[in-house]
Design goal:
5-stranded antiparallel sheet; 3 helices
């Protein structure tokens, strides 16, 4: 069990690092020590196969590859990240309910989302 995470520079849309980790906050801290600008975890999801899931994301966005595990930010990439069931963001989590997709923001149940 682990996570696939999406890390980006704070206050900028990209590039976005697509990686895997058992502890996302620890990974962010490690990346931050060698990065020239502040970074933030944009989103993450739990995975039983983080290595395979990470590889699928890398393959899907191969054309947007910048360097290493960094990818150019695009509307498609953002949409795919935010519309993934179970995605965790600083704002909440997207989940499927009988009435459709909903954002859960701590104690607030958001309106349906129609991808």
């Amino acid at each position: 069990m682990g996570y696939v995470y999406f890390i980006k520079p704070l206050h900028r849309h990209g590039p976005i690092k697509i990686g895997k980790a058992k502890n996302v906050e620890a990974r962010l801290s490690g990346l931050q020590t060698s990065h020239y600008e502040p970074l933030e975890v944009f989103a993450a999801f739990e995975s039983n196969e983080p290595l395979a899931d990470e590889a699928r994301w890398h393959a899907r966005y191969r054309s947007d590859h910048v360097r290493g595990e960094w990818f150019a930010a695009s509307g498609k990439l953002y949409w795919d990240i935010l519309s993934r069931e179970g995605i965790h963001t600083p704002l909440g989590r997207l989940r499927k309910t009988p009435s459709g997709w909903r954002w859960s923001l701590r104690d607030f149940e958001g309106p349906p989302v129609h991808p």
